[in-house]
Amino acid sequence: MSGELRFPSPFEVETPLGAEGWQEMYPKHVLFSEERRESEEARLWFYNGMHFPEPMTPFDIITAESFYVAIGEMSARFFCIPPAMGIDFRVLNGYVYINSIPVLDPQEVQERAQLFQRRAGHYYANWERIYEGWRERVKQEIAALRAVSFPELPDIEPDELVFAERGIGTSMSVLEGYNRVIESLFRLAQIHSEIVMIGFAAYLTFYDFCKQAFPEISDQQITGMIGAIDVSMLRPDEEFKALARRAVELGIADKFVEGRDWQEVFAELRQSDAGQAWLREWDERSDPWFYVNSGGGLQHHFRAWVDDPSPIFGALIDYIRRVERGENLERDIEAQRQERDRITAEYRELLRTDEDRKAFDELIGLVRKVYFSIEDHRFFADHWYMSTFWNKLRELGQLFVDHGFFREVDDMFYLHWTEVSQALTDLLLSWSVGGEALGPRHWPSVVERRKAILAKLRKFNPPPALGVVPETIADPAIVMLWGITPDRLRAWLTPADGDGNILRGFPASSGTVEGPARVISSVNELETVQDGEILVCPVTEPSWAPIFTKVRGTVTDIGGVMSHAAIVTREYNIPAVLGTGVATKRIRTGQRIRVDGDQGIVTILD
Protein backbone atom coordinates (compact mmCIF):
# COMPACT_ATOMS: atom_id res chain seq x y z
CA MET A 1 0.00 0.00 0.00
CA SER A 2 1.06 3.52 -0.70
CA GLY A 3 1.24 5.87 2.25
CA GLU A 4 1.77 8.99 0.11
CA LEU A 5 -1.88 9.73 -0.56
CA ARG A 6 -4.78 9.07 1.73
CA PHE A 7 -8.28 10.21 2.43
CA PRO A 8 -9.48 11.06 5.95
CA SER A 9 -9.42 8.26 8.49
CA PRO A 10 -12.93 7.02 9.28
CA PHE A 11 -12.10 7.83 12.90
CA GLU A 12 -11.40 11.48 12.04
CA VAL A 13 -14.76 12.25 10.40
CA GLU A 14 -16.92 14.31 12.74
CA THR A 15 -20.56 13.63 13.55
CA PRO A 16 -22.89 16.34 12.19
CA LEU A 17 -24.29 18.63 14.85
CA GLY A 18 -27.62 17.27 16.07
CA ALA A 19 -26.91 13.71 14.87
CA GLU A 20 -25.11 12.57 18.01
CA GLY A 21 -25.88 8.97 18.89
CA TRP A 22 -26.51 7.93 15.27
CA GLN A 23 -24.57 4.71 15.93
CA GLU A 24 -27.42 3.26 18.00
CA MET A 25 -29.47 2.81 14.82
CA TYR A 26 -27.17 0.09 13.45
CA PRO A 27 -25.69 -3.17 14.76
CA LYS A 28 -22.10 -2.84 16.00
CA HIS A 29 -20.68 -5.18 13.37
CA VAL A 30 -21.37 -2.66 10.57
CA LEU A 31 -19.66 0.27 12.34
CA PHE A 32 -16.03 1.30 12.35
CA SER A 33 -14.76 0.19 15.76
CA GLU A 34 -11.78 0.74 18.04
CA GLU A 35 -11.37 -3.02 18.21
CA ARG A 36 -10.62 -3.11 14.46
CA ARG A 37 -9.12 0.36 14.12
CA GLU A 38 -5.64 -0.69 12.99
CA SER A 39 -6.88 -2.77 10.06
CA GLU A 40 -9.74 -0.41 9.15
CA GLU A 41 -7.49 2.65 8.95
CA ALA A 42 -5.03 0.79 6.70
CA ARG A 43 -7.64 0.05 4.03
CA LEU A 44 -9.41 2.08 1.36
CA TRP A 45 -13.14 2.56 1.87
CA PHE A 46 -15.24 4.40 -0.70
CA TYR A 47 -18.74 5.77 -0.43
CA ASN A 48 -21.20 3.51 -2.25
CA GLY A 49 -23.56 6.24 -3.38
CA MET A 50 -24.37 4.13 -6.45
CA HIS A 51 -26.49 1.66 -4.49
CA PHE A 52 -27.14 3.63 -1.29
CA PRO A 53 -27.44 7.29 -2.31
CA GLU A 54 -28.90 8.47 1.01
CA PRO A 55 -28.23 7.74 4.69
CA MET A 56 -29.67 4.40 5.66
CA THR A 57 -32.69 3.95 7.85
CA PRO A 58 -31.99 1.09 10.27
CA PHE A 59 -34.11 -1.54 8.50
CA ASP A 60 -32.63 -0.74 5.09
CA ILE A 61 -29.23 -1.95 6.28
CA ILE A 62 -30.58 -5.45 5.66
CA THR A 63 -29.99 -4.92 1.95
CA ALA A 64 -26.29 -4.23 2.51
CA GLU A 65 -26.02 -7.13 4.95
CA SER A 66 -27.73 -9.64 2.66
CA PHE A 67 -26.17 -8.54 -0.64
CA TYR A 68 -22.61 -8.31 0.66
CA VAL A 69 -22.87 -11.76 2.23
CA ALA A 70 -23.99 -13.01 -1.17
CA ILE A 71 -21.37 -11.10 -3.19
CA GLY A 72 -18.65 -12.36 -0.87
CA GLU A 73 -19.82 -15.96 -1.02
CA MET A 74 -20.21 -15.95 -4.80
CA SER A 75 -16.80 -14.30 -5.28
CA ALA A 76 -14.78 -16.12 -2.65
CA ARG A 77 -16.44 -19.48 -2.04
CA PHE A 78 -18.70 -20.28 -4.98
CA PHE A 79 -16.98 -19.25 -8.22
CA CYS A 80 -13.61 -18.41 -6.64
CA ILE A 81 -12.87 -15.28 -8.66
CA PRO A 82 -9.05 -15.39 -8.61
CA PRO A 83 -7.99 -11.95 -7.29
CA ALA A 84 -11.03 -10.96 -5.20
CA MET A 85 -12.75 -12.28 -2.09
CA GLY A 86 -15.68 -9.86 -2.15
CA ILE A 87 -16.77 -6.66 -0.47
CA ASP A 88 -16.70 -5.59 3.17
CA PHE A 89 -18.80 -2.64 4.32
CA ARG A 90 -19.19 -0.16 7.16
CA VAL A 91 -21.63 2.62 8.00
CA LEU A 92 -20.37 6.11 8.83
CA ASN A 93 -22.80 8.92 9.65
CA GLY A 94 -25.50 6.76 8.06
CA TYR A 95 -23.68 6.33 4.73
CA VAL A 96 -22.40 3.02 3.38
CA TYR A 97 -18.67 2.67 2.67
CA ILE A 98 -17.25 -0.43 1.04
CA ASN A 99 -13.86 -2.10 0.71
CA SER A 100 -12.72 -4.83 -1.67
CA ILE A 101 -10.90 -7.76 -0.08
CA PRO A 102 -8.04 -8.83 -2.41
CA VAL A 103 -6.25 -12.17 -2.72
CA LEU A 104 -2.55 -11.29 -2.38
CA ASP A 105 -0.84 -14.70 -2.46
CA PRO A 106 0.14 -15.51 -6.11
CA GLN A 107 -0.11 -19.25 -5.48
CA GLU A 108 -3.61 -18.87 -4.05
CA VAL A 109 -4.59 -16.74 -7.05
CA GLN A 110 -3.41 -19.53 -9.35
CA GLU A 111 -5.29 -22.20 -7.42
CA ARG A 112 -8.46 -20.10 -7.46
CA ALA A 113 -8.02 -19.45 -11.18
CA GLN A 114 -8.22 -23.18 -11.89
CA LEU A 115 -11.41 -23.48 -9.83
CA PHE A 116 -12.89 -20.40 -11.48
CA GLN A 117 -12.13 -21.63 -14.98
CA ARG A 118 -13.95 -24.89 -14.34
CA ARG A 119 -16.93 -23.46 -12.48
CA ALA A 120 -17.48 -20.27 -14.46
CA GLY A 121 -16.75 -22.18 -17.66
CA HIS A 122 -19.76 -24.38 -16.98
CA TYR A 123 -21.94 -21.27 -16.59
CA TYR A 124 -20.55 -19.60 -19.71
CA ALA A 125 -21.09 -22.75 -21.80
CA ASN A 126 -24.73 -22.96 -20.71
CA TRP A 127 -25.48 -19.27 -20.25
CA GLU A 128 -28.79 -18.96 -22.11
CA ARG A 129 -30.33 -21.93 -20.30
CA ILE A 130 -28.96 -20.86 -16.91
CA TYR A 131 -30.05 -17.25 -17.29
CA GLU A 132 -33.57 -18.24 -18.35
CA GLY A 133 -33.74 -20.49 -15.29
CA TRP A 134 -32.42 -17.63 -13.19
CA ARG A 135 -35.26 -15.36 -14.27
CA GLU A 136 -37.79 -18.06 -13.42
CA ARG A 137 -36.30 -18.45 -9.93
CA VAL A 138 -36.64 -14.72 -9.30
CA LYS A 139 -40.26 -14.82 -10.47
CA GLN A 140 -40.88 -17.74 -8.10
CA GLU A 141 -39.40 -15.70 -5.24
CA ILE A 142 -41.72 -12.81 -6.11
CA ALA A 143 -44.75 -15.13 -6.21
CA ALA A 144 -43.79 -16.67 -2.85
CA LEU A 145 -43.31 -13.21 -1.36
CA ARG A 146 -46.72 -12.07 -2.56
CA ALA A 147 -48.27 -15.18 -0.99
CA VAL A 148 -47.03 -14.26 2.51
CA SER A 149 -49.80 -12.87 4.68
CA PHE A 150 -49.92 -11.05 8.00
CA PRO A 151 -53.43 -11.79 9.32
CA GLU A 152 -55.11 -9.66 11.93
CA LEU A 153 -54.79 -10.97 15.48
CA PRO A 154 -58.36 -11.96 16.49
CA ASP A 155 -59.94 -11.70 19.93
CA ILE A 156 -60.85 -15.39 19.64
CA GLU A 157 -59.29 -17.83 17.18
CA PRO A 158 -61.89 -19.00 14.59
CA ASP A 159 -63.43 -22.49 14.72
CA GLU A 160 -61.79 -23.62 11.48
CA LEU A 161 -58.35 -23.01 12.97
CA VAL A 162 -59.22 -25.07 16.03
CA PHE A 163 -60.89 -27.94 14.19
CA ALA A 164 -57.99 -28.19 11.74
CA GLU A 165 -56.37 -30.09 14.64
CA ARG A 166 -52.94 -28.64 13.95
CA GLY A 167 -52.55 -26.78 17.21
CA ILE A 168 -51.13 -23.79 15.34
CA GLY A 169 -52.57 -20.33 15.96
CA THR A 170 -52.52 -16.97 14.16
CA SER A 171 -49.38 -15.81 15.96
CA MET A 172 -47.39 -18.47 14.13
CA SER A 173 -48.72 -17.27 10.77
CA VAL A 174 -47.47 -13.76 11.54
CA LEU A 175 -44.11 -14.93 12.88
CA GLU A 176 -43.54 -17.38 10.03
CA GLY A 177 -44.52 -14.70 7.54
CA TYR A 178 -41.91 -12.27 8.85
CA ASN A 179 -39.20 -14.92 8.89
CA ARG A 180 -40.10 -15.99 5.35
CA VAL A 181 -39.80 -12.41 4.11
CA ILE A 182 -36.36 -11.98 5.71
CA GLU A 183 -35.10 -15.33 4.43
CA SER A 184 -36.46 -14.53 0.98
CA LEU A 185 -34.29 -11.40 0.73
CA PHE A 186 -31.13 -13.25 1.76
CA ARG A 187 -31.96 -15.95 -0.79
CA LEU A 188 -32.68 -13.40 -3.53
CA ALA A 189 -29.35 -11.71 -2.81
CA GLN A 190 -27.60 -15.01 -3.49
CA ILE A 191 -29.54 -15.54 -6.72
CA HIS A 192 -28.76 -11.97 -7.80
CA SER A 193 -25.02 -12.27 -7.13
CA GLU A 194 -24.76 -15.60 -8.92
CA ILE A 195 -25.27 -13.88 -12.28
CA VAL A 196 -23.56 -10.56 -11.63
CA MET A 197 -20.15 -11.61 -10.35
CA ILE A 198 -19.18 -13.90 -13.22
CA GLY A 199 -20.79 -11.46 -15.62
CA PHE A 200 -18.25 -8.83 -14.67
CA ALA A 201 -15.47 -11.42 -14.81
CA ALA A 202 -16.41 -12.30 -18.42
CA TYR A 203 -16.28 -8.65 -19.47
CA LEU A 204 -12.92 -8.15 -17.75
CA THR A 205 -11.50 -11.15 -19.64
CA PHE A 206 -12.59 -9.61 -22.96
CA TYR A 207 -11.31 -6.20 -21.85
CA ASP A 208 -7.85 -7.61 -21.01
CA PHE A 209 -7.69 -9.46 -24.34
CA CYS A 210 -8.45 -6.25 -26.24
CA LYS A 211 -5.91 -4.20 -24.31
CA GLN A 212 -3.19 -6.75 -25.11
CA ALA A 213 -4.19 -7.32 -28.73
CA PHE A 214 -4.84 -3.65 -29.55
CA PRO A 215 -2.54 -1.53 -27.33
CA GLU A 216 -4.01 1.78 -28.55
CA ILE A 217 -7.69 0.80 -28.10
CA SER A 218 -9.79 3.01 -25.83
CA ASP A 219 -12.31 1.83 -23.27
CA GLN A 220 -14.92 3.54 -25.44
CA GLN A 221 -14.10 1.36 -28.44
CA ILE A 222 -14.21 -1.81 -26.35
CA THR A 223 -17.66 -1.04 -25.01
CA GLY A 224 -18.69 -0.02 -28.53
CA MET A 225 -18.34 -3.66 -29.59
CA ILE A 226 -20.90 -4.98 -27.11
CA GLY A 227 -23.74 -2.43 -27.02
CA ALA A 228 -27.06 -2.10 -28.86
CA ILE A 229 -29.03 -4.29 -26.47
CA ASP A 230 -32.74 -4.49 -25.75
CA VAL A 231 -33.04 -5.36 -22.07
CA SER A 232 -35.90 -5.59 -19.58
CA MET A 233 -34.54 -2.60 -17.68
CA LEU A 234 -35.43 -0.39 -20.65
CA ARG A 235 -38.91 -1.88 -21.05
CA PRO A 236 -40.64 0.42 -18.52
CA ASP A 237 -39.60 3.40 -20.62
CA GLU A 238 -41.04 1.74 -23.74
CA GLU A 239 -44.32 1.15 -21.88
CA PHE A 240 -44.32 4.84 -20.92
CA LYS A 241 -43.94 5.82 -24.57
CA ALA A 242 -46.80 3.52 -25.54
CA LEU A 243 -49.03 5.19 -22.96
CA ALA A 244 -48.07 8.60 -24.34
CA ARG A 245 -49.15 7.50 -27.84
CA ARG A 246 -52.42 6.11 -26.45
CA ALA A 247 -53.20 9.39 -24.69
CA VAL A 248 -52.99 11.17 -28.05
CA GLU A 249 -54.98 8.46 -29.85
CA LEU A 250 -57.75 8.60 -27.23
CA GLY A 251 -57.97 12.38 -27.39
CA ILE A 252 -57.04 13.00 -23.76
CA ALA A 253 -53.58 14.54 -24.25
CA ASP A 254 -54.87 17.91 -23.03
CA LYS A 255 -55.41 16.42 -19.56
CA PHE A 256 -51.65 15.99 -19.15
CA VAL A 257 -50.44 19.49 -18.34
CA GLU A 258 -47.02 20.34 -16.96
CA GLY A 259 -47.25 21.24 -13.29
CA ARG A 260 -50.21 18.97 -12.53
CA ASP A 261 -49.50 16.00 -10.30
CA TRP A 262 -50.47 12.49 -11.31
CA GLN A 263 -53.26 12.12 -8.71
CA GLU A 264 -55.01 15.19 -10.12
CA VAL A 265 -54.68 13.95 -13.70
CA PHE A 266 -55.81 10.42 -12.86
CA ALA A 267 -58.86 11.76 -10.96
CA GLU A 268 -59.93 13.76 -14.02
CA LEU A 269 -59.38 10.79 -16.35
CA ARG A 270 -61.83 8.73 -14.30
CA GLN A 271 -64.60 11.11 -15.38
CA SER A 272 -64.60 10.03 -19.06
CA ASP A 273 -64.78 6.79 -21.02
CA ALA A 274 -61.56 7.58 -22.88
CA GLY A 275 -59.81 8.42 -19.64
CA GLN A 276 -60.98 5.18 -18.04
CA ALA A 277 -59.74 3.22 -21.06
CA TRP A 278 -56.32 4.83 -20.69
CA LEU A 279 -56.24 4.07 -16.94
CA ARG A 280 -57.09 0.41 -17.64
CA GLU A 281 -54.14 0.27 -20.02
CA TRP A 282 -51.96 1.89 -17.36
CA ASP A 283 -52.96 -0.88 -14.94
CA GLU A 284 -52.33 -3.61 -17.52
CA ARG A 285 -48.85 -2.32 -18.34
CA SER A 286 -47.92 -1.59 -14.74
CA ASP A 287 -47.67 -5.24 -13.67
CA PRO A 288 -44.81 -5.95 -13.81
CA TRP A 289 -43.22 -3.11 -15.79
CA PHE A 290 -43.95 -0.28 -13.38
CA TYR A 291 -42.54 -2.18 -10.41
CA VAL A 292 -39.46 -0.13 -11.15
CA ASN A 293 -38.35 2.41 -8.58
CA SER A 294 -36.33 5.55 -9.02
CA GLY A 295 -33.59 4.80 -6.52
CA GLY A 296 -32.21 1.35 -7.30
CA GLY A 297 -34.38 -0.70 -4.96
CA LEU A 298 -32.15 -1.00 -1.91
CA GLN A 299 -33.76 1.74 0.21
CA HIS A 300 -37.43 1.56 1.13
CA HIS A 301 -38.42 5.17 0.46
CA PHE A 302 -37.79 4.99 -3.29
CA ARG A 303 -41.28 3.91 -4.28
CA ALA A 304 -42.12 1.98 -7.42
CA TRP A 305 -43.84 3.78 -10.30
CA VAL A 306 -46.85 1.55 -9.70
CA ASP A 307 -47.19 3.13 -6.22
CA ASP A 308 -46.00 6.67 -6.94
CA PRO A 309 -45.04 7.81 -10.46
CA SER A 310 -44.30 11.36 -9.29
CA PRO A 311 -40.55 11.41 -10.11
CA ILE A 312 -41.09 10.49 -13.75
CA PHE A 313 -44.62 11.77 -14.42
CA GLY A 314 -43.21 14.92 -15.99
CA ALA A 315 -41.39 12.72 -18.51
CA LEU A 316 -44.73 11.15 -19.52
CA ILE A 317 -46.15 14.62 -20.14
CA ASP A 318 -43.07 15.45 -22.22
CA TYR A 319 -43.53 12.27 -24.28
CA ILE A 320 -47.16 13.20 -24.96
CA ARG A 321 -46.13 16.67 -26.21
CA ARG A 322 -43.52 15.08 -28.47
CA VAL A 323 -46.04 12.63 -29.92
CA GLU A 324 -48.37 15.56 -30.64
CA ARG A 325 -45.52 17.24 -32.54
CA GLY A 326 -45.05 14.09 -34.61
CA GLU A 327 -41.64 13.21 -33.19
CA ASN A 328 -40.36 9.63 -33.24
CA LEU A 329 -39.79 8.28 -29.73
CA GLU A 330 -38.14 5.04 -30.77
CA ARG A 331 -34.49 4.19 -30.14
CA ASP A 332 -32.65 3.39 -33.37
CA ILE A 333 -31.31 0.03 -32.20
CA GLU A 334 -30.56 -1.15 -35.73
CA ALA A 335 -28.24 1.78 -36.40
CA GLN A 336 -26.49 1.12 -33.10
CA ARG A 337 -26.04 -2.54 -34.02
CA GLN A 338 -24.59 -1.65 -37.41
CA GLU A 339 -22.08 0.67 -35.75
CA ARG A 340 -21.26 -2.02 -33.18
CA ASP A 341 -20.66 -4.59 -35.91
CA ARG A 342 -18.54 -2.14 -37.93
CA ILE A 343 -16.21 -1.49 -34.99
CA THR A 344 -16.00 -5.21 -34.22
CA ALA A 345 -15.13 -6.14 -37.81
CA GLU A 346 -12.43 -3.46 -38.02
CA TYR A 347 -10.66 -4.68 -34.91
CA ARG A 348 -11.03 -8.33 -35.87
CA GLU A 349 -9.22 -7.58 -39.15
CA LEU A 350 -6.24 -6.31 -37.18
CA LEU A 351 -5.65 -9.73 -35.61
CA ARG A 352 -2.86 -11.58 -37.37
CA THR A 353 -3.48 -15.25 -36.57
CA ASP A 354 -6.41 -17.64 -36.84
CA GLU A 355 -5.86 -18.52 -33.19
CA ASP A 356 -6.27 -14.90 -32.11
CA ARG A 357 -9.36 -14.47 -34.30
CA LYS A 358 -10.90 -17.61 -32.83
CA ALA A 359 -10.25 -16.39 -29.28
CA PHE A 360 -11.68 -12.97 -30.18
CA ASP A 361 -14.82 -14.52 -31.69
CA GLU A 362 -15.39 -16.69 -28.63
CA LEU A 363 -14.88 -13.82 -26.21
CA ILE A 364 -17.05 -11.32 -28.10
CA GLY A 365 -19.81 -13.91 -28.37
CA LEU A 366 -19.63 -14.68 -24.67
CA VAL A 367 -19.42 -11.11 -23.43
CA ARG A 368 -22.40 -10.00 -25.52
CA LYS A 369 -24.54 -12.73 -23.94
CA VAL A 370 -23.28 -11.94 -20.45
CA TYR A 371 -23.37 -8.16 -20.92
CA PHE A 372 -27.07 -8.41 -21.74
CA SER A 373 -27.85 -10.13 -18.46
CA ILE A 374 -25.79 -7.71 -16.35
CA GLU A 375 -28.29 -4.98 -17.16
CA ASP A 376 -31.34 -7.15 -17.83
CA HIS A 377 -31.23 -8.80 -14.40
CA ARG A 378 -31.71 -5.50 -12.61
CA PHE A 379 -35.38 -5.22 -13.47
CA PHE A 380 -36.20 -8.64 -12.02
CA ALA A 381 -34.06 -8.51 -8.88
CA ASP A 382 -33.44 -4.87 -7.95
CA HIS A 383 -36.80 -3.48 -8.99
CA TRP A 384 -39.64 -5.99 -9.37
CA TYR A 385 -38.54 -8.12 -6.43
CA MET A 386 -37.36 -5.29 -4.14
CA SER A 387 -40.49 -3.19 -4.69
CA THR A 388 -42.56 -6.25 -3.79
CA PHE A 389 -40.35 -6.85 -0.73
CA TRP A 390 -40.81 -3.35 0.70
CA ASN A 391 -44.56 -3.38 0.08
CA LYS A 392 -44.93 -6.77 1.76
CA LEU A 393 -43.19 -5.38 4.85
CA ARG A 394 -45.60 -2.46 4.82
CA GLU A 395 -48.38 -4.98 5.40
CA LEU A 396 -46.62 -5.99 8.63
CA GLY A 397 -46.13 -2.31 9.44
CA GLN A 398 -49.89 -1.84 9.27
CA LEU A 399 -50.35 -4.59 11.87
CA PHE A 400 -47.97 -2.72 14.18
CA VAL A 401 -49.86 0.54 13.58
CA ASP A 402 -53.14 -1.19 14.41
CA HIS A 403 -51.69 -2.19 17.79
CA GLY A 404 -50.20 1.21 18.60
CA PHE A 405 -46.52 0.38 18.12
CA PHE A 406 -46.05 2.98 15.36
CA ARG A 407 -47.90 6.08 14.19
CA GLU A 408 -47.27 5.41 10.47
CA VAL A 409 -46.68 2.23 8.48
CA ASP A 410 -43.19 3.27 7.34
CA ASP A 411 -42.12 3.94 10.94
CA MET A 412 -41.20 0.26 11.06
CA PHE A 413 -38.24 0.98 8.78
CA TYR A 414 -36.63 3.04 11.55
CA LEU A 415 -35.96 -0.22 13.40
CA HIS A 416 -33.27 -2.69 12.41
CA TRP A 417 -34.79 -5.96 11.23
CA THR A 418 -33.62 -7.71 14.41
CA GLU A 419 -35.37 -4.99 16.44
CA VAL A 420 -38.55 -5.62 14.44
CA SER A 421 -38.23 -9.27 15.44
CA GLN A 422 -38.07 -8.19 19.08
CA ALA A 423 -41.04 -5.84 18.65
CA LEU A 424 -43.02 -8.63 16.99
CA THR A 425 -42.32 -10.97 19.89
CA ASP A 426 -43.49 -8.24 22.28
CA LEU A 427 -46.68 -7.80 20.24
CA LEU A 428 -47.46 -11.51 20.12
CA LEU A 429 -46.75 -12.01 23.82
CA SER A 430 -49.08 -9.19 24.87
CA TRP A 431 -51.82 -10.20 22.42
CA SER A 432 -51.76 -13.84 23.46
CA VAL A 433 -52.49 -13.09 27.12
CA GLY A 434 -54.31 -9.75 26.78
CA GLY A 435 -51.48 -7.97 28.55
CA GLU A 436 -49.87 -4.58 27.92
CA ALA A 437 -47.06 -4.48 25.36
CA LEU A 438 -44.04 -2.28 25.95
CA GLY A 439 -43.84 -1.33 22.26
CA PRO A 440 -46.50 1.43 22.17
CA ARG A 441 -44.74 3.22 25.05
CA HIS A 442 -41.22 2.64 23.71
CA TRP A 443 -40.96 2.67 19.91
CA PRO A 444 -42.78 5.92 18.92
CA SER A 445 -40.24 8.10 20.74
CA VAL A 446 -37.34 6.02 19.38
CA VAL A 447 -38.66 6.45 15.84
CA GLU A 448 -39.05 10.22 16.23
CA ARG A 449 -35.51 10.55 17.58
CA ARG A 450 -34.12 8.52 14.68
CA LYS A 451 -36.06 10.54 12.13
CA ALA A 452 -34.51 13.71 13.55
CA ILE A 453 -31.02 12.19 13.41
CA LEU A 454 -31.46 11.06 9.80
CA ALA A 455 -32.68 14.52 8.81
CA LYS A 456 -29.34 15.90 10.07
CA LEU A 457 -27.37 13.12 8.34
CA ARG A 458 -29.01 13.93 4.98
CA LYS A 459 -27.34 17.35 5.13
CA PHE A 460 -23.91 15.78 5.69
CA ASN A 461 -21.57 15.72 2.68
CA PRO A 462 -19.90 12.28 2.87
CA PRO A 463 -16.23 12.13 1.79
CA PRO A 464 -15.90 10.15 -1.47
CA ALA A 465 -13.41 7.81 0.20
CA LEU A 466 -11.68 7.03 3.49
CA GLY A 467 -8.27 5.64 4.33
CA VAL A 468 -5.21 4.74 2.25
CA VAL A 469 -5.05 4.76 -1.56
CA PRO A 470 -3.98 1.22 -2.58
CA GLU A 471 -1.43 0.49 -5.28
CA THR A 472 -3.79 -1.88 -7.11
CA ILE A 473 -7.49 -2.79 -7.10
CA ALA A 474 -8.02 -6.34 -8.31
CA ASP A 475 -11.77 -6.78 -7.94
CA PRO A 476 -13.32 -6.54 -11.44
CA ALA A 477 -16.66 -5.31 -10.08
CA ILE A 478 -15.03 -2.39 -8.25
CA VAL A 479 -13.30 -1.24 -11.42
CA MET A 480 -16.06 -1.91 -13.95
CA LEU A 481 -19.12 -0.95 -11.93
CA TRP A 482 -17.97 1.78 -9.55
CA GLY A 483 -15.06 3.03 -11.64
CA ILE A 484 -12.68 2.94 -8.67
CA THR A 485 -9.02 2.68 -9.68
CA PRO A 486 -5.87 4.00 -7.98
CA ASP A 487 -5.59 6.64 -10.73
CA ARG A 488 -9.18 7.79 -10.16
CA LEU A 489 -8.59 8.01 -6.42
CA ARG A 490 -5.41 10.03 -6.90
CA ALA A 491 -7.29 12.36 -9.24
CA TRP A 492 -9.88 12.96 -6.52
CA LEU A 493 -7.08 13.99 -4.18
CA THR A 494 -5.15 16.08 -6.71
CA PRO A 495 -5.83 19.81 -7.15
CA ALA A 496 -7.87 20.57 -10.26
CA ASP A 497 -6.29 21.53 -13.58
CA GLY A 498 -6.02 25.23 -14.43
CA ASP A 499 -8.46 27.32 -12.46
CA GLY A 500 -10.51 24.33 -11.45
CA ASN A 501 -12.49 24.23 -14.67
CA ILE A 502 -11.37 20.72 -15.73
CA LEU A 503 -12.77 17.50 -14.28
CA ARG A 504 -11.67 14.04 -15.38
CA GLY A 505 -13.55 10.76 -15.23
CA PHE A 506 -14.32 7.65 -17.24
CA PRO A 507 -15.28 8.16 -20.91
CA ALA A 508 -18.49 6.14 -20.65
CA SER A 509 -20.47 7.17 -23.75
CA SER A 510 -18.92 8.82 -26.81
CA GLY A 511 -19.57 12.26 -28.25
CA THR A 512 -19.00 15.87 -27.22
CA VAL A 513 -21.75 18.29 -26.22
CA GLU A 514 -22.07 21.70 -24.59
CA GLY A 515 -24.99 23.03 -22.61
CA PRO A 516 -26.26 24.31 -19.27
CA ALA A 517 -25.78 22.02 -16.28
CA ARG A 518 -28.61 20.73 -14.15
CA VAL A 519 -27.19 19.53 -10.82
CA ILE A 520 -29.47 17.25 -8.83
CA SER A 521 -28.73 15.36 -5.64
CA SER A 522 -31.79 13.13 -5.37
CA VAL A 523 -34.51 11.53 -7.44
CA ASN A 524 -37.00 14.06 -6.08
CA GLU A 525 -35.31 16.72 -8.23
CA LEU A 526 -35.69 14.84 -11.54
CA GLU A 527 -38.78 16.86 -12.40
CA THR A 528 -36.63 20.01 -12.53
CA VAL A 529 -34.60 18.72 -15.50
CA GLN A 530 -35.27 20.74 -18.67
CA ASP A 531 -34.81 19.92 -22.35
CA GLY A 532 -31.27 20.40 -23.59
CA GLU A 533 -29.60 20.45 -20.18
CA ILE A 534 -26.64 18.32 -19.12
CA LEU A 535 -27.50 16.13 -16.13
CA VAL A 536 -24.95 16.29 -13.28
CA CYS A 537 -25.63 13.99 -10.36
CA PRO A 538 -23.95 11.62 -7.89
CA VAL A 539 -25.17 8.60 -9.87
CA THR A 540 -28.02 7.73 -12.23
CA GLU A 541 -30.38 4.79 -12.26
CA PRO A 542 -31.63 2.84 -15.30
CA SER A 543 -35.15 3.72 -14.18
CA TRP A 544 -34.37 7.34 -15.03
CA ALA A 545 -34.47 6.36 -18.72
CA PRO A 546 -37.36 8.75 -19.55
CA ILE A 547 -35.15 11.65 -18.45
CA PHE A 548 -32.42 10.66 -20.90
CA THR A 549 -34.63 11.68 -23.81
CA LYS A 550 -34.50 15.26 -22.50
CA VAL A 551 -30.83 15.75 -21.57
CA ARG A 552 -27.88 16.32 -23.91
CA GLY A 553 -25.21 14.74 -21.74
CA THR A 554 -24.54 13.17 -18.36
CA VAL A 555 -21.85 13.65 -15.70
CA THR A 556 -21.68 11.67 -12.44
CA ASP A 557 -19.53 11.47 -9.33
CA ILE A 558 -19.57 7.67 -9.32
CA GLY A 559 -19.51 5.01 -12.03
CA GLY A 560 -17.31 2.93 -14.33
CA VAL A 561 -17.53 1.69 -17.89
CA MET A 562 -19.93 -1.13 -16.94
CA SER A 563 -22.06 0.84 -14.50
CA HIS A 564 -25.76 1.09 -15.17
CA ALA A 565 -25.38 4.78 -15.99
CA ALA A 566 -22.77 3.91 -18.63
CA ILE A 567 -24.95 1.24 -20.20
CA VAL A 568 -28.06 3.40 -20.39
CA THR A 569 -26.32 6.50 -21.73
CA ARG A 570 -24.66 4.40 -24.44
CA GLU A 571 -28.01 2.88 -25.41
CA TYR A 572 -29.53 6.38 -25.67
CA ASN A 573 -26.47 7.82 -27.48
CA ILE A 574 -25.88 10.48 -24.83
CA PRO A 575 -22.28 11.60 -24.20
CA ALA A 576 -21.30 10.75 -20.63
CA VAL A 577 -18.35 11.15 -18.29
CA LEU A 578 -18.66 9.14 -15.10
CA GLY A 579 -16.67 8.72 -11.90
CA THR A 580 -15.44 12.32 -11.64
CA GLY A 581 -15.72 12.11 -7.86
CA VAL A 582 -16.49 15.80 -7.42
CA ALA A 583 -18.80 16.97 -10.23
CA THR A 584 -21.77 17.74 -7.98
CA LYS A 585 -19.50 19.76 -5.69
CA ARG A 586 -17.75 21.73 -8.42
CA ILE A 587 -20.53 22.41 -10.93
CA ARG A 588 -23.57 24.62 -10.33
CA THR A 589 -26.93 24.50 -12.07
CA GLY A 590 -26.98 26.88 -15.02
CA GLN A 591 -23.24 26.87 -15.66
CA ARG A 592 -22.34 26.00 -19.25
CA ILE A 593 -20.18 22.91 -19.44
CA ARG A 594 -18.62 20.76 -22.15
CA VAL A 595 -18.79 16.97 -21.86
CA ASP A 596 -16.23 15.02 -23.88
CA GLY A 597 -17.41 11.43 -23.69
CA ASP A 598 -14.46 10.20 -25.76
CA GLN A 599 -11.67 11.60 -23.57
CA GLY A 600 -13.49 11.53 -20.22
CA ILE A 601 -13.12 15.30 -19.69
CA VAL A 602 -15.67 17.79 -18.36
CA THR A 603 -14.88 21.48 -18.88
CA ILE A 604 -16.68 24.21 -16.94
CA LEU A 605 -16.99 26.98 -19.53
CA ASP A 606 -18.49 29.74 -17.36
TrEMBL record:
Give start and end of each PEP-utilising enzyme mobile domain.
530-600
Question: InterPro entries, alphabetically?
Answer: PEP-util_enz_mobile_dom, PEP_Utilizing_Enz, Phosphohistidine_dom_sf
Pfam families membership: PEP-utilizers
DNA repair as a keyword? no
Q: Name one GO molecular function term.
A: transferase activity, transferring phosphorus-containing groups
Q: Does the keyword RNA-binding apply?
A: no
Cite the entry's keywords alphabetically.
Coiled coil
Q: Which domain of life is it from?
A: Bacteria
Coiled-coil zones: 326-353
Protein name per Swiss-Prot or TrEMBL: PEP-utilising protein mobile region
